[in-house]
Amino acid sequence: MKYSNAYNVLPEDIVKIIQEYVNGEYLYIPRKEEAQKKWGENSGSRETLKRRNAEIYLKYMNGAVILDLAQEYYLSDKSIRRIISQQKKLIFKINTES
């Protein structure tokens, strides 16, 4: 996020109205709701975690032990169980929609 001088992006009369409320302070103006992005969309973190979770599930289905997966991915066994459960639900949903 970068800062913009209000005089460079807004009409002068609007700047004067805003100054009545927040004179010289920083003001955050959020994106329009339809333009908001979900966590990790810009950085690619969301996709990376999707791939990692699918990989964990595939290894589990091929016989990997939960504790071994936890050590390999530096996660708790509880997190591995949650990922496996989520992946099962996702696959079930995909199969029932087809």
TrEMBL record:
Residues annotated as signal peptide: none
What Pfam family does this protein match (any one)?
Mor
Highest taxon in the source lineage: Bacteria
Q: Which SUPFAM superfamilies match?
A: Homeodomain-like
Residue intervals of the Mor transcription activator domain: 12-91
From the Swiss-Prot or TrEMBL record, give the protein name: Mor transcription activator domain-containing protein
Species in which this protein is naturally found: Desulfosporosinus fructosivorans
